[in-house]
Design a protein that fits this description.
Elements: E1 3-15, H1 18-56, H2 61-90, E2 97-110, H3 115-119, E3 122-126, E4 129-134
Parallel strand pairs: 1-3
Antiparallel strand pairs: 1-2, 3-4
Helix pairs in contact: 1-2
């Protein structure tokens, strides 16, 4: 009988617990703090770069300012996204299941196997421990 080995996705889900909510909130707040730090660094470097640009080539000042503003805008948009995620996370219901990512598994399939069933596998976690492996 013919067989072939495939990489199939496995969805990783977590059951929402107070511990998970606290962990997610902490991760989001840490990411937001990092973004704030990056914004401060951009501003600090911007002042220095703008001063150097004025000395060497005043005409390039506008382009430099636009580049700096674009970088700041990216960070501000990311921060807004993180604030929305924080709000969503705080509204998660205990016991609900959320997708946390995917992994891959190697599966050897043979003629007659139900490929759809193999492609829809998932693992359910609760506080990092496997509760169920679902097909």
């Amino acid at each position: 009988m013919n067989t072939i080995t495939l990489k199939c996705p496995v969805t990783i889900k977590s059951k929402v617990t107070e511990t998970l909510k606290e962990q997610l909130v902490a991760e989001i707040k840490e990411a937001m703090a990092k973004i704030d730090m990056e914004l401060q660094q951009i501003e600090f470097h911007a002042k220095r770069l703008m001063t150097e640009q004025v000395r060497s080539d005043v005409q390039g000042l506008t382009a430099l300012r636009q580049q700096i503003d674009a970088e700041k805008q990216k960070r501000l948009e990311l921060k807004t996204h993180m604030q929305e995620k924080l709000k969503e996370t705080s509204q998660l219901e205990i016991g609900a299941e959320i997708v946390q990512g995917t992994m891959e598994q190697l599966v050897t399939v043979t003629e007659g196997d139900d490929l759809q069933k193999l492609m829809s596998r998932e693992i359910l976690l609760e506080d990092g421990k496997i509760l169920a492996i679902r097909e």
